[in-house]
């Protein structure tokens, strides 16, 4: 039996092969994409054998597996799967999704979710922007995006905005961007620029992520910050 690391990328490679110009996604392509996610679920060993260190630190809730399809640098399909709960969030921009924004968000001040591995400087940045607000430290960009959305159960932290002030890989944020794009949300750099998911694999402009709030107003409250100098 092929293991996850072999089988899932194989199916996903077949999906990409089916994506020919003008990049219309066929039923067969979607079926192959579904097989890639199914293989992650069927062939994934028991979690206890995978992330013993995460279990010790009680970090398994942050674990996600993600796939994104971007066309011309724009995310069009995003999937965020939580292997330890079995929950999968997905969106096909302009077509459909099993996710939606929460019914309400706080902006005065917002609850901000940040990276637990870069919490020192980002805390000061957030306090400069929003004052004495609540900051949630968490792992995983996929988890942080889900914290902004309506979840089927109270299994993750809730936040009103996600902020990241250092470099981040585009493959780590593309799936979340697709979900947000479908719901009218925003994932931009700290300067409010849209992120191009083609070309270089690194986003060097930081992140401001929101849905259901005035994104431009959030950006205007941020202090000046250049991720390339920090």
Describe the structure.
This protein has 230 residues and is of the alpha+beta class. A hairpin with a 3-residue loop joins strand 3 (87-92) and strand 4. The protein has 8 helices and 11 strands. The termini are far apart. Helix 1 (4-18) packs antiparallel against helix 2 (27-42). The strands form 3 sheets. Strands 6-5-7-11-9 form a 5-stranded mixed β-sheet. Strands 1-2-3-4 form a 4-stranded antiparallel β-sheet.
Mean pLDDT: 83
Give the total of beta strands: 11
Strand content: 15-25%
Order of H and E elements: HHHHEEEEEHEHEEHEEEH
Distance between the termini: 46 Å
- What share of residues is helical? 25-40%
**Low-pLDDT segments:** 1-11, 13-25, 41-51
Side-by-side strand order of the widest sheet = 6-5-7-11-9
Mind telling me the C-alpha Rg?
18 Å
Tell me, briefly, the overall form: globular
Helix tally?
Answer: 8
Structure classification: alpha+beta
The biggest sheet, with number of strands, parallel, antiparallel or mixed sense and barrel status, is: 5 strands, mixed
What is the assembly state of the chains in this entry? single chain
């Amino acid at each position: 039996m092929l293991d996850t690391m072999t089988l899932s990328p194989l199916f996903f490679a077949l999906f990409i092969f089916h994506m020919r110009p003008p990049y219309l996604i066929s039923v067969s392509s979607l079926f192959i994409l579904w097989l890639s996610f199914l293989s992650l679920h069927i062939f994934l060993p028991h979690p206890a054998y995978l992330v013993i260190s995460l279990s010790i630190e009680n970090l398994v809730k942050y674990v996600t597996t993600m796939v994104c399809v971007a066309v011309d640098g724009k995310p069009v399909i995003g999937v965020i799967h939580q292997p330890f709960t079995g929950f999968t969030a997905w969106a096909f921009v302009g077509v459909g999704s099993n996710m939606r924004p929460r019914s309400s968000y706080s902006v005065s001040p917002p609850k901000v979710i940040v990276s637990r591995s870069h919490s020192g400087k980002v805390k000061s940045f957030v306090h400069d922007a929003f004052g004495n607000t609540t900051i949630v430290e968490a792992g995983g960009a996929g988890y942080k995006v889900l914290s902004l959305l309506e979840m089927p159960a109270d299994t993750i932290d809730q936040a009103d905005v996600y902020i990241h002030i250092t470099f981040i890989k585009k493959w780590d944020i593309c799936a979340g961007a697709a979900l947000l794009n479908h719901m009218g949300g925003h994932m931009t750099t700290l300067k409010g620029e849209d992120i191009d998911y083609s070309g270089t694999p690194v986003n060097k402009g930081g992140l401001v992520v929101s849905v259901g709030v005035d994104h431009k107003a959030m950006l205007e409250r941020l202090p000046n910050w250049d991720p390339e100098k920090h």
